[in-house]
Task: inverse folding
């Protein structure tokens, strides 16, 4: 059953370019709709999520979900393959090296910056007359840290648990964070104190990079 | 005391027993051959010795040092496992220099000497992407022995090699054995193994037997 789910997940979502394009179109469409109807400032934006008071809080927070979902489908499989496809010639000469983890960390940082550039440029274009560039910059910095954190967390979970279990645990985490509307668990759900949010995220990143290194050590090179 | 010691080593992946209760002692300065069909568990056996996989049960020791997942042995090891992983856009020499730079124990002179031995010196400035399977394999053999490695683990090393190169390879293995190197070699080709090995083991469905 688990193997079939893994395959379905892989074929329908991870390796399916059409799904990814559809998700991006949906993301831009929803962002357009949001920017037409709402403001984009520190008190009101898609990262200031709707609390779980109603049954449709997932749909109310669809922009927030898509912000994380779109890059994760594109990035996780690439990084996972990169970490697991070790060059034996190098490994045997320096098996205790942190280099693979450092390289993946660098790639995650670069990917997060690029994705955030795309995302915030879209938002800025849609809200060109009313949005504060300083606010975008400050929130963008926090979202880069948050995206890096969640990418590393999923990478750690999928490496340790193998297959779809890691991804399912992440979905549970997403729902808990959304329901509790907390900033303590990597995902940003309130933006009223961005300095505080960024501080927490930096601590998370330090812990997660160590966890990634540990997971990499415990992962078999099959 | 044996140089490599395996006690009750077992591993199952997806309900399939990849390694089945292997007990083995290998002496220093010997060539040990492992023969078996594709998928019999030879590569997984080598991966276990190199500390690349987790064991369900059992212990592996090399030179008295216990091997576990994620910590390869401290002894200087040269290896070929499956497809040689070179950087295609680098030249043959640059690839070897890159690998040598990790430990930084040998100079370019020693790399060139190893290349000379396998007639690869004329191809040193050619990019690996233009190499045939046999040339890649020669390069893989060179990287496995160029740093005066103490333990050499070779999985299907003669894949794609012509007859003359196989002969050179066999001669080199005998020379390394005389220098007290320990060599483990696996192949589906019994003739290559039998011509060089002191002891030959049969690998079948994860079981290792004489």
Result:
């Amino acid at each position: 059953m688990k193997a079939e789910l893994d395959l379905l997940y892989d074929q329908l979502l991870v390796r399916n370019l059409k799904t990814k394009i559809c998700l991006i179109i949906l993301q831009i469409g929803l962002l357009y709709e949001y920017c037409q109807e709402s403001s984009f400032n520190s008190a009101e934006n898609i990262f200031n999520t709707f609390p779980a008071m109603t049954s449709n809080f997932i749909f109310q927070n669809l922009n927030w979900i898509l912000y994380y979902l779109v890059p994760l489908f594109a990035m996780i499989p690439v990084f996972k393959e990169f970490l697991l496809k070790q060059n034996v010639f190098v490994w045997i000469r320096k098996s205790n090296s942190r280099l693979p983890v450092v390289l993946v960390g660098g790639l995650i940082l670069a990917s997060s910056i690029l994705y955030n550039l795309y995302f915030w440029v879209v938002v800025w274009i849609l809200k060109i007359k009313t949005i504060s560039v300083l606010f975008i910059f400050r929130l963008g910095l926090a979202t880069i840290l948050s995206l890096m954190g969640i990418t590393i967390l999923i990478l750690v979970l999928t490496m340790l648990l193998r297959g779809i279990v890691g991804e399912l645990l992440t979905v549970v985490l997403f729902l808990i964070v959304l329901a509790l509307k907390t900033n303590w668990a990597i995902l940003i759900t309130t933006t009223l104190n961005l300095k505080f949010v960024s501080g927490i995220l930096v601590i998370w990143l330090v812990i997660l990079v160590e966890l990634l290194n540990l997971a990499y050590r415990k992962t078999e090179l099959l | 005391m044996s140089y490599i010691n395996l006690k009750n080593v077992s591993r199952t992946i997806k309900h399939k027993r990849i390694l089945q209760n292997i007990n083995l002692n290998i002496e220093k300065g010997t060539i040990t051959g492992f023969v078996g069909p594709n998928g019999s568990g030879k590569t997984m056996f080598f991966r276990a010795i190199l500390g690349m996989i987790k064991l369900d049960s059992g212990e592996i020791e090399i030179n008295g040092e216990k091997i576990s997942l994620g910590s390869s042995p401290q002894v200087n090891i040269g290896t070929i496992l499956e497809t040689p992983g070179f950087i295609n856009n680098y030249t043959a020499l640059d690839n070897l220099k890159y690998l040598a730079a990790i430990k930084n124990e040998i100079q370019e002179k020693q790399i060139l000497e190893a290349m000379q031995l396998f007639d690869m010196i004329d191809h040193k400035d050619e990019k690996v992407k233009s190499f045939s399977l046999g040339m890649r394999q020669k390069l893989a053999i060179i990287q496995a022995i160029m740093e005066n490695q103490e333990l050499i683990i070779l999985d299907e090393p003669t894949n794609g090699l012509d007859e003359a190169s196989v002969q050179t390879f066999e001669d080199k293995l005998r020379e390394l054995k005389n220098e007290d190197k320990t060599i483990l070699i696996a192949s589906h080709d019994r003739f290559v193994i039998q011509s060089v090995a002191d002891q030959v083991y049969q690998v079948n469905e994860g079981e290792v037997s004489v």
About this structure: Chain A touches chain B at residues 87-96, 217-218, 220-222 (CB under 8 Å). The two ends of chain A are 22 Å apart (CA to CA). DSSP finds nine helices and no strands in chain A.
